[in-house]
Design brief:
The protein contains seven helices and no strands. With about 200 residues, it is an all-alpha fold.
Length: about 200
């Protein structure tokens, strides 16, 4: 019961944050398709959508938290959202009202709550050292998509991937650093998983 309730709360936070952003775009004059297209350009929104879907599934499942690889990968991806925001994006824009609330929900709340859920409720000792490479497929696929979309539209979702402003060399180094950090963080997650799994078998 506690697992499902916790998952439901996390899913609700993600859904509400996405909904607030969507409503703000509609209020500013965007059409529904236009608002959706804008939202799916952002890693933050896509990853929180992943959180919303995964944790809605956990809340409704008869066997919650029984997909440790999926939950761990989701936790790592949403942690990337929080870390990149804190290091590279925080303070770049002044936010107020609903936008400020959504910012807290999607950049601060879910990046903390999802890893805590993984630590507290997900069975340990089931992850492998190759899993971080599997989890890296998602952010790398997003990077390719974001660069192609930015090239076509002339506007990039995030300043640090703006090739026109920064050049390919700087963008490449920044993205390579993020990718390496992501894989290393994934190995840390696996190490914690294995340590806790071994302790649980003692």
């Amino acid at each position: 019961m506690l697992i499902r309730l916790s998952a439901a709360i996390i899913a609700l936070i993600a859904w509400v944050g996405i909904g607030i952003h969507f409503e703000a775009l509609i209020s500013s004059g965007s059409s529904v398709p236009g608002a959706v297209w804008t939202l799916v350009g952002y890693f933050t929104i896509l990853t929180n959508l992943l959180v919303a879907l995964v944790f809605t599934g956990i809340a409704l499942s008869r066997e919650p938290a029984e997909r440790p690889r999926l939950i761990a990968g989701t936790a790592l991806a949403i942690m990337l959202v929080g870390i990149v925001y804190a290091l590279l994006l925080s303070g770049l824009a002044e936010l107020s009202g609903g936008s400020a609330v959504a910012n807290v929900l999607l950049h601060q709340a879910t990046p903390v709550l999802v890893p805590l859920f993984w630590l507290a409720f997900v069975p340990k000792g089931r992850l492998g050292w190759s899993d971080p490479f599997l989890w890296t497929i998602y952010p790398l696929a997003y990077l390719v998509y974001a660069l192609l979309r930015g090239r076509i539209e002339g506007r990039y979702a995030y300043p640090f991937i703006d090739v026109g402003a920064n050049g390919w060399g700087t963008v490449g180094l920044t993205c390579a650093g993020i990718a390496v950090g992501f894989v290393v963080a994934g190995w840390v997650v696996v190490a914690i998983d294995r340590a806790l799994g071994a302790r649980g078998r003692e």
